[in-house]
Amino acid sequence: MDVDIYEDKPWLSRYATGLPKTISPEHDSLLTALQGAVAKSPELPLIHYFDGTMTLRQLDEASSRLAMTLIANGFMAGDTLGLYLQNDPAFVIGQLACWKAGGVAVAINPMNKARELAFILQDCGARALLCLDALYSEVAEQVLAQGAVQVSLVVTTSMLDGQSTHDARVLDDRQRRPVAAGVLDLQAITDARSSLEGFLPARPAAHDVAMLTYTSGTTGKPKGAMNTHGNLVFNAQAYRDWVGLTPDDKILGIAPLFHVTGSVVHVALALLTCCPLILTHRFHPGVILDVIRQQRPTFTIGAITAFQALMNAPGASRADFACFRAIFTGGAPVSPATLSAFEDFSGVYLHNAFGMTETCSATHLVPFGQRAPVDPRSGAISIGVPVFNTSVRIVDDEGAVVPVGEEGEIVDCGPQVMKGYWGQPEITSQALVAGWLRTGDVGFMDAQGWFYLVDRKKDMINVSGYKVWPREVEDVLYEHPAVFEAIVVGISDSYRGETVKAIVSLQQGMGATEAALIEHCKARLAAYKYPRQVEIVDSLPKSASGKLLRRAFR
């Protein structure tokens, strides 16, 4: 049923007291938010990068100088700028500069190799590229030399810029590389003292495309989701109002900035709210713990794997997490057992967040201060309730709404839904039907309006005609004390068609046999659901956002 049925129920007031049921974005774009903040508090720190700090004024000036450089080198309104970077201040500078020049920022996974980088640069028609100097020399230079992409301007930056800590745990190349021939240097551009007088930044409208965020390609080649300026502002404001963030808070940047979660819930949220954003180049549990102890952040969001790593890091203690007022987790399913383990260790409850690249981050959040219920039938923990202004339905294969409690595809409609896929009108028309986004995720809604994710449609395992959702089996595996991470897939079976296989890694210092794990599941699951095979490995493959990659084993 449509979630609108519970709009007038008393239950709603238990999580929404004092919050509006709808919100209107205060700005057309983050640029207007930045301009207002600079006018009001120019010396307010906005980015902490190790021992370096960048104020609102410095960020505004640096991005304006880069925008002027882009324009001077032929970058025009509507052109695309590739951001091939880690979690560095340069990412934020590049985004803002691109928008000031009237362009579209393209977030590129820094783990992409030459073939993957070439595909994205070609697909988006990148006119310019801002990248780490190491990534330029190791990957981008050879891609550009092949002549198949139309990049005409390259600006490089060093991971050492803007700080002097030089932490070897994440800054593994502790020497600034010489600027390559034919390439401009970001630090030289931003350090210039040329006058900014007369520069008039673009004023993008809410419906203009702000970013291309590429999907992970689980259903084919990666597709560039067109996230608009309005999408970014809306979801940043939704997080701000949902949690009640103010400039007195501090955001810890755990999620990769190239990922939609990092772009929205780190960068966009910091710009809109003027909360300082703490960056550490890459995720390293020891480095993150040091930063937590030094900066005492109050809010963050990341994949559950990041929080598991922090919980298991040497020297981690409950006191390290006492500064946090709110922590959300998204990007990967969470089992109730894992959620409880983190809370027992840290004292902090992890609130679920659920969304997609195509929805510019969240469509559902667990209400701040509330606990997500667990479905008694499946053992799945709720992904939350729809955020402001967002309608969600559960539909069958024909698009008809199914009754409460029944499983179907989750479809979304709201101001965070993308404009479409870049250069893919046919695929866009299949995904967006009359304004509703077909997510490809299977879930259900209970009678109180809580939503639950079952699995991706394509991940369903068919065992002799019975449906097995990997998520349910994985949740049972996580109940075993020795299991650290688990992936469940279907494998070919001559008798059943498919059967269930689990691939797991174990907690450090703990042991379990394959047979013991099979018996653990057999005692808790229907006969057709428990894994007939278990493989124990040292570690499981993950995406850059921390999501376990089931497709690597499917």
Account of the protein in words:
With 554 residues, the protein is α/β, with parallel strands linked by helices. 50% of the residues are buried. The protein contains 15 helices and 26 strands. The strands form 5 sheets. A 9-stranded mixed sheet has the order 2-1-11-10-12-13-14-15-16, sandwiched between helices. α4 links the parallel β3 and β4 (104-108). Residues 1-19 have low confidence and may be disordered. It folds into 3 domains: 1-16 and 229-457, Rossmann fold (3-Layer(aba) Sandwich); 30-46 and 54-204, Rossmann fold (3-Layer(aba) Sandwich), CATH 3.40.50; 460-552, ANL, C-terminal domain (GMP Synthetase, Chain A, domain 3, 2-Layer Sandwich), CATH 3.30.300.30.
Quote the distance from N terminus to C terminus. Answer: 32 Å
Structural class call reads alpha/beta
User: Residue share in helices?
Assistant: 25-40%
Q: What's the CATH topology name of the largest domain? A: Rossmann fold
- H/I helix tally: 15
Our count of domains comes out at 3
C-alpha-based Rg, rounded: 23 Å
Please report the total strand number as a whole number: 26
List keywords for this structure.
single chain; 554 residues; alpha/beta; Rossmann fold; GMP Synthetase, Chain A, domain 3; 9-stranded mixed beta sheet; 7-stranded mixed beta sheet; 15 helices; 26 strands; globular; disordered N terminus
